[in-house]
Amino acid sequence: MTAYRTNSGEAGFTLVEIAIVLLIVTILLGYTLAMFPVQQELKQYREARQDIQRIKEAVIGFAQVNGRLPCPALPPSGGREDDTGASGCKSYAGFVPATTLGLNGRMNADRLMVDPWGNPYRYYVADSDYDGDGNDDFVIPGEMRDVGLVDTNGDNYIDLDANLVVCEGTSTSSDECSNGDYVVGDPDTTLTPPAYAGAPVVIVSMGKNWSDTPSGEELENAGAKLTNTDLSLGIGPTGKEYLLDDDTVFSRPSGQREDFDDVVDWISSNRLFSKMIEAGQLP
After folding, report:
1. What pTM value is reported for the model?
2. Spatial contact of 91 and 248, defined as CB atoms under 8 Å apart
3. Given 57, 104, 202, 235, which residue has the most CB atoms within 10 angstroms?
């Protein structure tokens, strides 16, 4: 019987195969690195929206207990609401009163709650005074109940009418919504006093590009009227992170404009009123 011997060897990768593998790995690594900033940005926007939702719930909870909305915080107030203690707020444009609301999160040196890009969340509350008694309807204890959820003058608007307006896209130089694109509110200036059916609270994150030169709707959302060149209330640092002015019209970004990336949210009157009714603060 003849024995046959076979030689067996293990074949290795060729240089061509190794080059192909390295090319694929390089492409995948490059794609991952390219997508990282996008993924990070999406994460930051998710965090901002989550923060704003927490703020809204805390504001509603405060109103249910106290029968009013909290005033904004100002830089010297240490994150506490800054009110006059009598007829209303020192300013209706300001920052989230995180200390008053018991909110935790990112804070700057002035104890103002900041968004993922380090800018303080802006908080605006309606300064409506329907009956003209000098007591603002939404921020004085019991005033919402006194004004009530009725339409006493037959103008098809309830008397407890908030005056914060949100536009889709842009607002005009006259501080109204361009092309009538109202998301919240629609001012009827033919009425005396004007009726709005607007939001009692608006909360804004200025987005990632607020560190660049702000203009247009970004200034509008910071509380600086497009028709007003005076951008400071004379409080806190002079940096643009604290630009403030009285304003009631805000713009929600739409489309793919890279220069306008704010996160704009609000508490609707219906939601506030329903929660106040649950708590026995209304009607």
Report:
1. 0.78
2. no
3. 202
**C-alpha 215, offset from chain centre:** 17
User: Which CA distances in Å does 86 have to 5, 74, 138, 228, 281?
Assistant: 105, 18, 13, 29, 20
Compute the distance between CA of residue 206 and CA of residue 228 in angstroms, rounded to an integer. Answer: 19
23 contacts: CB under 8 Å, gap ≥ 6: none
The model's pLDDT over 140-189, given as tens digits with 9 standing for 90+, comes to 988 889 888 888 877 788 888 888 888 887 665 555 677 678 888 888 87
pLDDT exceeding 90 applies to what percent of the chain? 24
Query: Cβ(283)–Cβ(75) under 8 Å?
Result: no
Q: How many whole angstroms separate alpha carbon 234 and alpha carbon 236?
A: 7
- CB atoms closer than 10 angstroms to residue 191: 14
Q: What is the pLDDT of residue 215?
A: 61
Q: Which two tokens stand for residue 211?
A: 């560190």
SS3 29: helix
Contacts of residue 261, Cβ cutoff 8 Å, sequence gap at least 6:
207, 208, 209, 253
